[in-house]
Every structure is written in C-alpha cells, then in structure tokens.
Amino acid sequence: MERDGTTRADTVVIGGGIAGAATAYYLAKGGQKVVLVEKGTIAGEQSSRNWGFVRQQGRDPREVPLMAACNRMWQGLEAELGADLEWRQGGNLAVARDAAQVARYEAWLEVARQHQIGSRVIAGRAVNDLVPGLQGSFAGALHTPGDGQAEPAKVAPAFAAAAERLGAEVRAGCAVLRIETAGGRVERVATERGAIACDHAVVAAGAWSSRLLRPLSIDLPQLWIRASVGRTAPVAAIGDGALAMWAPGLGVRQRRDGTLNIADGATDFDLSFDALRHGRAFLPLWRDNRDSVAVRLGPGLGATLAETIGGTERAFTVHRTLDPAPNPARVASALGALARMLPGLGNVSVTRSWAGYIDITPDFIPVLGAVDAVRGLAVATGLSGHGFGMGPVVGRVSAETILKGQASLDIAPFRLSRFHDGSTNAPANVV
Ligand SMILES: Cc1cc2nc3c(=O)[nH]c(=O)nc-3n(C[C@H](O)[C@H](O)[C@H](O)COP(=O)(O)OP(=O)(O)OC[C@H]3O[C@@H](n4cnc5c(N)ncnc54)[C@H](O)[C@@H]3O)c2cc1C
Question: Quick check: is 430 in a domain?
C-alpha cells in the first residue's frame, strides 16, 4: 500500500462475471499481481443467470476460431480449476423454425467444416429420433455432438477462487467508481474502498461496461435486453439426461440433478435512455429480431435519463446486483411448449423463475482487446447473450494481450474501433 492509502496492482479487472473472473485467473497464472473488483457478488449478474449452453454451433464465423479453442478448454477446465462445474459434453441441438432456417444451417456447415467442429444438419423425423419422446413435426435441426453444458453459478466463482489461490485479490461488494488516466494512460482505478494504482485496467463489467467507459469519452454501443428463465422440479432423464435444445418457443437444458432450465427464447426490451443514444446502431439487429423482442416502457427510461444527467457513479453502488423481474408470461409459454413437445414428462412444475439483463452489441459479437484511446485500457465485454460458453477463452485472450502484447488467436474482428471506423458488419450468426 502506498502512503496515501492507494494499493498497487499490475492489472485491475473490473467485473466478476465469467469474462472478468477468467481474465483475472489467466493474468494471475501469468504471474501478474491482479485485483478483481466486483460491485456485488461474483457471477451475480448474467454469469449465474444464463441457461448454461456451451455452444460452438451456429455462431458468427468471426467467433468460431475462439469458440472452437474454448470448447477444447472446457474439456479440461474442471481439472484446470480444481472444481466441479457440472460440465457435460452431451451435444447441442437447434431445431429450425422452417425450411429457410434449415438452409441457413446447411450454409453454416462450411464454417463448421473449416474448424472441424463436427456439426451436422438433420431433417424431419431424425430430429424426433435424436430426442426420445420429442413430439412435433420439424423441418430440421443443427446438431453438434461436441457441444456441451455446464452450471453457470459454479464457473465464474471457480475462476475467481483459482485466481485467489494464485495470489489475486478478489474484492466483492466493492464498486469501481471510475477509471482515472494521466498522460493518455491508465493511472488508477477508483473504487468505493479506495484507489488502486495500476498499469492496466480491463473493463469486463457486462451490462455496465458502456457506462464505465463513457466518462473517458469512449463510446461503446451497448443495450440491455431482459431474458426470463424458469427452473422446473426434477423430471425423468430425457435421453442421456444432458439435453441442451433450442427449438421454436422452447430453450431447454436438463441439469445434472434432473431439473430443467426452460425459456421461450424471446426477450423484453425495457426502454432506456441508452436506446435513444445508441438506437441507430441497433436498427439492423432490431429489424432481424423484432418478432422475438417486446419493447416495454417502464421506470428504466427515467432512471437512465437521471443517470445521464447526474453521472453514473451512483448507479454502481445502487445496483449491487441487477435482478430484474422475470416475465411470467414467457415462463408460462415455455412450460406450455415443453408440455407439447415432451408430453411424456407428465405434469412438470416450475419451482422458481428469474431474469437477467443481457448486454448486446449492434453486431452481436464481443468487444475485446486494447482500447486505442487510453494506453493500458482493455475491454472484455459485449458478449451478446452467448458469452457463458465463450467466457474461458475471452479470459485467456484478454490476459494474453496484457502479458504478451498480443493474443494467440485473432481478436481483430472484436476491436472496439469497428463501431467508429465504419468496419462493423451485420450479425452473421445462424442460431
Ligand atoms: C437468461 C440468460 C440466458 C443466457 N444463456 C446463455 C447460454 O446458454 N450460453 C451462453 O454462452 N451464454 C448465455 N447467456 C449470456 C451469458 O450469460 C453472458 O454473455 C455472460 O455471462 C456475460 O459475462 P460477463 O462477465 O461479460 O458479464 P456479467 O456476468 O454480467 O458480469 C459483469 C459483472 O461486472 C460487475 N460490474 C459492473 N459494473 C461494475 C463496477 N462499476 N464495479 C464493479 N463491478 C462491476 C457486475 O456486477 C457483474 O457481476 C445468457 C444470459 C442470460 C441473461
């Protein structure tokens, strides 16, 4: 500790979700003195609230090299972290809405082939044959036997605990208020428990990343959408008990204890001031997905406007853990779809439901790597609703850029500057 009470670290990682916890782990493994700062609890926001799919299939081709590497990481992650993550490599199945979607899956197989992912498209009754008891008539599905699942609530805490064992300091319940710079580079990270002087800061703050960067005049186009999930009582094993299926109107994953995570696959967009700020950039994404996103007018608009006027620092301490209300109609709709598609499960009850705010970017891919405007500053964010599966590799490449000056995989497509130099492309995911 320095004389004015400031502590010192090589790198401060902001945000204890899977992106931040994994980054802190790989930095500590690389020998750095790291402080991981989390305003609430480790994995309190998206990283514990997600469905738990670990999916290579259907991703934007720009993500696939990272996700293929990440799939290999998952296979050794429990041993690496010394923790039970409920990892199971039971495959992922995405059932198509119609023939046009099957055609998009077929086209995507070329991406799978380039990266030896082993995906395949199956048609008609073969979809029902794959999932014992599945009812309905389907045009086809994308199936990747090498994809898997894990228990979200266990993974980021396992990364954080492993980082601590390597000497990292984990400060939970401690908000970062701002990043301070001097001479164009990161100087300190100010937290509500004092400042941390550092050479590098990594913004891995999930839904809050844009707000943390704004006072530095760094624009990250980012919005939040609310996704609702239900958890059922245990049911009989569906096939091998590791089903991870995304079908029209139903996302379902069977957990190790036999319970199911279910969702209807649609989301709610609670109107915020950020929608006015970033709205234009999101129009193409909105046009492609408007059938599955419902716009809601609520208190969020006034609250985010007040923040914009009064500054964001207070918001970090007021919202320790974002815990939005689930939409009961979405959970009921998912339960109805489950009863129709898997009637053999009998009368299934929902024991709890929750929601999470997903942070999304206009092109639906992450934002990774150094920020040009401020030396020593990097981002690992914008995981756009599919970042749980990708979290380990996001942590690894983020750490590599600091430890070695460059990542071992190409992260150029994820640079922040793409939003400002006109090089953003439309989303290219098919799932
Ligand atoms: C319902 C739902 C279902 C999903 N399903 C899947 C799925 O099946 N598979 C998949 O791959 N992905 C899925 N996702 C997406 C996935 O959960 C996210 O992409 C991923 O968890 C994002 O991780 P993160 O670390 O970037 O953000 P988060 O987990 O949100 O972590 C960010 C952390 O930063 C902290 N923070 C923010 N500001 C500050 C500050 N100023 N000071 C200190 N700390 C701060 C927050 O408190 C938070 O804990 C789903 C998401 C949801 C909500």
Answer: no
